[in-house]
Amino acid sequence: MNLSFKTASSDLVEIATGSVRWVLQSPVNGLTVGVGTRLIATADTNSQVTMRGSVTSLEGQALLVLVDTVSGTGKYRGWSFTFEDPATGSGSSSGGTAGPAGPAGPAGTNGTNGATGVAGATGATGATGATGAAGATGATGATGAAGAAGGALSITATEDLAAYSVVTSTGKVANSATLGLIGKIVGINPATILNTFSGSVTQVGEVQNLLWAWTAGDRLYLNGISLSTTAPASGFSQFIGTAKNSTTIIVELGDPVLL
User: Is 0.85 topped by the overall pTM?
Assistant: First the structure.
C-alpha cells in the first residue's frame, strides 16, 4: 500500500532518535497508519535528511514515531512520510514526480512503398504560343522556259482596212497580184482600222466572222484581195489558214510562193 502525507509548514522538528512528534497538515486514516507501522520521514528541503521508526501514536493530526535510525542533523520545517519497504528499507509513495524521459529509441525500418496512384485526368490545352520569327527567304528558283510568241501584233493603217482583211506590215490590204507584197503579209485584222489609226492583227490563232460560210477543214489562200479555197493562178500564192468550222478560221501563215 502506498502512503504520502506531510506535516504543517510551521512544524519545526529536530533530527533525533527516540520518540519524535509531528503535527500533520490534515488527519490520516487510522486504518492506513496504525501503531507499529514503519515510516520514513524526509525533510522537504533536503532529501538526504531522514528519520525512520515505528508509529507509537496517531491522534488527529498528532503523530508520534519511535525513531531508531536517522540521517543528517539539525532542525527542519516541512516533512513528508512514506511507508518503509520491509525488504529493502526504502520508502514508497503513491505520487512521486516522473523521472526525465529516456533517450529516443532507434528509428524503425522504412515501410514498403505504396502502390502507384491512378493517373490524373489530362489538363486543358494551354494557350497558343506567339508566332515565331519569319524564316529566311529561300533561293530564287530557276527561270522557266520562254513562252510561245503571242498571236497578235499592232499596225498603223495607211489606208482604211475593212474588218477581216488580209493585211501587210505597211498597213495596206494585201493583194496576191502585187508582187511587191511578197513576204509582207502579217495576218487578218478582226476589226476595221481607219487610215492613220492603229489596230490589232491576228498572226496566229482563231478569227471568227459570223458572215463566213466555210466548210471545216477548208484550206484558205489569199486570192486577189480576198480569202479563197482556191489558190491564185498568177502573181504569188500565200496560204493563210484552215477553217475550224463555218464561221471560224485558224490563222497560220505559210511561206509565199511566186507563180
Answer: no
Task: Give dist(CA 124, CA 120) in Å, integer.
Answer: 12
**In 202-228, which positions are buried (b, 16+ CB within 10 angstroms) versus exposed (e)?**
bbebebebeebebeeebebbbbeeebe
Q: What is the pLDDT of residues 10-45, one digit of tens each?
A: 678 999 999 999 988 887 766 578 899 999 999 999
Residue 243's CB: how many other CB atoms inside 10 A? 20
State residue 33's pLDDT score: 80
Q: Are 10 and 76 in contact (CB under 8 A)?
A: no
62 within 8 A of 41, measured Cβ to Cβ: no
- Nine-digit cell at 118? 491512378
User: Max CA-CA distance within the chain?
Assistant: 184
C-alpha cell at 183: 513576204
Rounded Cα gap, residues 48 and 41, in angstroms: 11
List Cβ neighbours of 259 (8 Å cut-off, separation of 6 or more): 232, 233, 234, 235, 236, 237
- Cα distance between the two ends of the chain: 163
Give dist(CA 203, CA 254) in Å, integer. Answer: 11
The residue length of the chain stands at 259
Return the closest-CA partner of residue 220 out of 247, 193, 192: 247
- If residue 223 lies in a helix (H) or strand (E), which one and from where to where? strand 219-223
